[in-house]
Amino acid sequence: MTLSTTSRASAPQILDRCRELVRPALVESVGRLHPWHAETAAFSLGWTGTGGEPAPGSQGKGVRQALAVLGAEAAGGSGADAVLGAVAVELIHTFSLIHDDIMDGDETRRRRPTLWKAYGTGPAVLAGDALFALAVSTLAEAPGPGGAAAVRQLAGALGDLVHGQAQDLLFESRPWTGPGAVLPHEYRSMATHKTGSLLGCAAALGAVLAGAPASTVEALDLAGRHVGVAFQAVDDLLGIWGDPQVTGKPVHSDLRRLKKTYPVLAALSADHPAARRLDALLASAGPLDDPAARRAAELIDEAGGRRATVAEAHEHLAAARACLDRVPLARSARRDLLTLIPYLVDRTG
Amino acid sequence: MTLSTTSRASAPQILDRCRELVRPALVESVGRLHPWHAETAAFSLGWTGTGGEPAPGSQGKGVRQALAVLGAEAAGGSGADAVLGAVAVELIHTFSLIHDDIMDGDETRRRRPTLWKAYGTGPAVLAGDALFALAVSTLAEAPGPGGAAAVRQLAGALGDLVHGQAQDLLFESRPWTGPGAVLPHEYRSMATHKTGSLLGCAAALGAVLAGAPASTVEALDLAGRHVGVAFQAVDDLLGIWGDPQVTGKPVHSDLRRLKKTYPVLAALSADHPAARRLDALLASAGPLDDPAARRAAELIDEAGGRRATVAEAHEHLAAARACLDRVPLARSARRDLLTLIPYLVDRTG
User: Fold this and answer.
1) What value of ipTM does the predicted structure carry?
2) Is the pLDDT of residue A55 over 90?
3) Rounded Cα–Cα distance for residues B135 and B207 (Å)
């Protein structure tokens, strides 16, 4: 799906520039770990395989580090101001993926085994903890007056992150419809916390470290949170209708696992005959088999769940842009942010 | 075993006084969590059972919060200065127990199911993460100029803690003797990191928050680390010779699991025929059965492993006391520390 007509040409260049700026400090930070933690960190960051060999193409996009760098630049500072903040958010993101994969029982990520699958659950719990601790100490040692405020910013985001994960966890045991059903606005709150908090924190941290005023920090934080909700909406679309060749996940994977995602919740909350048929289908206990998952996908589409989710993504992208318009930002960094934000969300699946 | 003749009478009173001082802030801090995290935190802190009912007698001793309070008082401040630091170290301690129990596969703690056993592994990973995040944010928001230094102190201890856990984890796959064997000094390094870092941090944090000079902070930190090594040595003795009625663990539990503890390593490194017989016994693969574990305990004793471990505990207690003599400390808090430290280590098993 295409969510924007903004030129994409330079988004990968922006990501590359930021990655190059941050990389030496990230390498230095990881190098302070116990050698075993450094090995699991290098694997989890996509730098190496399980045997320590280089693993080209396994890295993430580095979205959070880029937002930190652009946050500092947008606030009138230099990207270098943001480097320790960028390191911290990449480490926290990596920590959260490691622990999420344990919680969700996911066995693959970016076409490789997840850390718990490769090293065992206990070691993966510890590897995540080590990255969490390293993120805090990296930021706590940032020089200058912004360091303490940066730690507070990160700590707040961490609280929101685990809050969102608890919300998500509890959704599992709630009914699809009727009293206690998960409503679309609750899902949005979960996504804001779970996905949005760290994206918002990344951009805000850059601004904090560059000495920006509170209004700029807050606007960047809120913009990142809206990006997170849009990102989650697109992730949910891909989890149902994404091309397995592109997503690396089986088709209808979220539906088979009966995951409560926005398209399903939006469909179920619609006043449409397909919503009632979908409810009946989901109410039959156990994971869905292939034909049932295909049928569920059709019913979600028919009841408007797909359309509502695309609208949700668009709405939150627009809200993110509006946040950037509310405060004075350096022109070139603002342009880079406007290039990057839709690119992050616009993944063809 | 009795490691000290210091009157114990007032150690429980010291612990009670510190617990009462810290408790309101700890309750307030836990109350900021998502309700589900607040429930798992209350369970893990021993406040409630799995159903939320009160659970008298399930609390830990509150050693770390007491060290924080006494650290502040020893540095000439008031116990109130230390409260947020005390909350942070108790939360970190609780987080580390939750994750340790997952890593070690331990099913009971303080005669109750461990959190992962009661709630599942994934939820327990998340519950630990939530306490970790809460500890950082609680301390990051501490008012006054000591807040930023306190966060740095905690971050350093967290790095050491996970370092020690990695050391411990890797011991498992190393041989008992010969090239690559774990030597007693490596075990001491592990205990300093894994057990000592947070005890040292607790006392140091109190001092930092009371505005103490670096020399006082360092002396308290080091004292706490020595206490940690002594504590670990006694824990190891109890893991072999402790009374199951008192420890709540099966007799010889560490031996059955082939855990590399100080008494075994000290025995194996002795030039004694019993050391060689012990090596042969341990080399026979698989966990030890009852008669083999009993025989191993006898051989460890015969080779001097038990005596060496008692000496190790005494030595580190003496070193802890020496640290307290190196810097000027408020008289009454110093006396409380000297009462508390041997009490913490002297557990009859």
Assistant:
1) 0.94
2) no
3) 18
